Protein: DoxX family protein
Organism: Aquicella siphonis
Amino acid sequence: MLFKQWVVGAWSIFDRICIFLQPLGDLFIRCWVAKAFIASGLTKTSSWSSTLLLFQYEYQVPLLPPEMAAVLAVIIELGISAFLVLGLGGRIPALILFVFNIMAVVSYPVLWTPAGYTGLKDHICWGIVLLVILLHGTGKISLDQAVIWWWKRRHPV
């Protein structure tokens, strides 16, 4: 009986610690996945002529001209990633980046070769993390939560 009480008590403490740390974990995964997209966007802006060449000859983005696809990619990678880090817009930035990630995998055939396997694994990992954010939400450390808190204070029920 004493062992059972110890296990239940230890589990209760562990559970409270996990619940306490959950908002930090949510913030961490948002920042971690956004870092990959922000780094890619900054790389694209650092050498625009190279970026345009990649979109013309390497990436096979369907339905968009290469110039428009490049501009849209930079806007999504930098702008939407910032919204994700801030936790602004809830699940919408995660959804946009999730779809963008799928398009990146589809549009870059090198990822489907043995030479691109590592890059494909990265995209799969980012996709899984974005899916978790999409299904779970941005968490308590987010601008969405700050807006909700502010709204409830200004408009009590």
Remarks:
- Residues 24-154 form one domain.
- The mean pLDDT is 96.
